[in-house]
Amino acid sequence: MIVGLPKEIKDNEYRVGLTPAGVRALTDARHKVVVERGAGEGSGFEDELYERAGATILDSPDDVWAEGEMVVKVKEPIAPEYPRMREGQLLFTYLHLAPDPMQTEALLKNKVTGIAYETITDRKGTLPLLTPMSEVAGRMAIQVGATYLEKMNGGRGILLGGVPGVPAARVVIIGGGVVGTNSAKIAVGMGAHVTIIDNNLDRLRELDDIFLSKISTLASSAYMIHDAVSEADLIVGAVLVPGAAAPKLVTRGMLKDVRKGAVIVDVAVDQGGCIETTHPTTHSNPTYYVEDVLHYCVANMPGAVPRTSTFALTNATLPYALKLANKGFIDAISSDPGLKEGVNTYAGHLTYEAVAVAQAITYTPLDEMLGTTTAKTTA
Predict the structure, then answer these.
(1) Integer Cα distance of 14 and 290 in angstroms
(2) Which tens digits make up the pLDDT trace of 223-270?
(3) What is the model's pLDDT at position 243?
(4) What's residue 371's pLDDT?
(5) Which of 14, 75, 306, 355 has the highest CB neighbour number within 10 Å of its CB?
(6) pLDDT at residue 379, as a whole number
(7) Which regions of the chain are under pLDDT 50?
(8) Predicted model pTM
């Protein structure tokens, strides 16, 4: 198989889909890898390292997309990349389709086989390719929040951990999954008062044990969320419904009671955000205010630490990329039900139900597609 590795073009996105070691694994398996010139520079991987790993360097992104039978990326394709996609091409990347009808339309129009990192599952039912970036983003959320709490950066002028005789900041984390847990680790380590809100009582019990009662836990309800955020200095949105749009758990009305200069970091922004006032921002223009509350909603947070992120991502994605390259699409998904869960688009049809629900468009189960049976509509 010919594997294409283009340079990411999303605003300030410095990650790359494969490390040179990942390329070497593919070329050792007798696959051809074509890499766009400069694709890895943002992560500290020069073209020479890819050439040593057996890759062919191409000057034009058009050529990489044209040659690649499977294109491996980090972030979803954006508008300039839509015309480069072609029928039957495998696209292996984060897609986050639920809040992005334009991208969905482009994938369907071009009849691309879109395999989303974020919906692939493992035998435990967890999301192995989302986990590493959730770990990075969760840890970054507290660093970012602490920075923007500083007065010169637009916040309340509060030191996250406080000092003796002065209270530490109050951090409220909405969601106790991978993002929330990693946020809590950093916030507790910095000495903040941390509260985690989740709708799963068993998970809250686990978190209480993990953190040895150094955090507070709350069962999720509109009342408890409103009460908690009204006292918060830093609010972290860490809610995930796999493949679906995130529920809006903090409403604009609640923000009227949040302290002026408090900071929101909505890590769920890729799936539309769990704060009603969230909209995607970029590393170039990362923040805005609503109701005097600073919002940081950068949709590719781990892109700010690309070397760490690229290593972490390739560690997780490479076995799946090898399986797809070695076996081909049909045999690969037939042998791995979790990989099949990653297929969001196929042959011009939307094959992931949560996206169909979010966008009120036709959903066709992949098994029915492969068996050429009738689709159903989700509205």
Answers:
(1) 29
(2) 999 999 999 999 999 998 888 889 999 999 999 999 999 999 999 999
(3) 80
(4) 76
(5) 355
(6) 45
(7) 372-379
(8) 0.90
What is the rounded CA–CA span in Å between residue 152 and residue 42? 28
C-alpha–C-alpha distance, residues 223 and 231, integer Å: 13
Q: How far is CA 71 from the centre of its chain?
A: 18
| Number of compact structural domains in the chain | 2
CB atoms under 10 Å from CB of 367, counted, come to: 10
Alpha helices for 29-151 (secondary structure H): 47-52, 61-67, 101-109, 131-148
CA distance 219 to 241: 17
Do 27 and 139 lie in one domain? The reply is no
248-251, long-range: CB < 8 A, 24+ apart: 248/273, 248/274, 248/275, 248/276, 249/174, 249/220, 249/222, 249/225, 249/274, 249/275, 250/174, 250/225, 250/274, 250/275, 250/276, 251/276
Catalytic residues: 96, 270
Q: Are the beta carbons of 330 and 370 closer than 8 angstroms?
A: yes
Residues 79-88: tens digit of each pLDDT? 999 999 999 9
Identify which of 5, 3, 1 has the alpha carbon closest to the alpha carbon of residue 19: 5
The token pair that represents 342 in the structure block: 């990653």
Owning domain of residue 101: 2-111+305-377
The secondary element (H helix, E strand) that includes residue 93 is strand 90-93
- Position 16 in a domain: yes
On whether both 196 and 99 belong to a single domain, the answer is no
Which residues, at least 6 apart from 283, have a Cβ–Cβ distance to it below 8 Å? 11, 12, 298, 300, 303, 304
Of 245, 271, 304, which residue constitutes the final position of a domain? 304
- In the structure encoding, which two tokens stand for residue 238, read together? 């860490």
| Structural element, H or E, at residue 343 | strand 343-346
